[in-house]
Amino acid sequence: MDTVDTSIGSSNALDDLLTMARSEPGPARLLTLLLRAEPVVDRNAAADSGPAESGLLKPIAVKAHVLDDIPDGSALLADVEGVVQSEWHFLMVGVLPGSLAGPPSPDLTDEQLKNMARSVHTGSGMDRYAFFDRHANPVLIGPPS
């Protein structure tokens, strides 16, 4: 189970992340994982207790992006929207740096995308990634408090 805090950061934090990724010395890849939040049903809670503040995260799609193809956060959100037809709630983002010789290899990129999904399944290592909602607002996702 994870908790979500939507009160952190600025509205252009996704653009800031893209700017930081572009400042890498070698060509980096932006790794994204779309997540669906599935609330845990508390049979003892009142029916009118409001929205769930914790639940399970389920990975639904991954993609590696070439930074030159993503001018800003809005373009990134539009690109990931085109990946899946199903509902998603959060975007998990990581930056995989390249080297002066070139971008990360496809094998390394695929392995890192798998590591992102593993982090969601195990709940460990999630602090290495940035999370955003569907409107590019940063969110804090972590273990229940």
UniProtKB/TrEMBL annotation:
Recorded superkingdom: Bacteria
Protein name as annotated: Uncharacterized protein
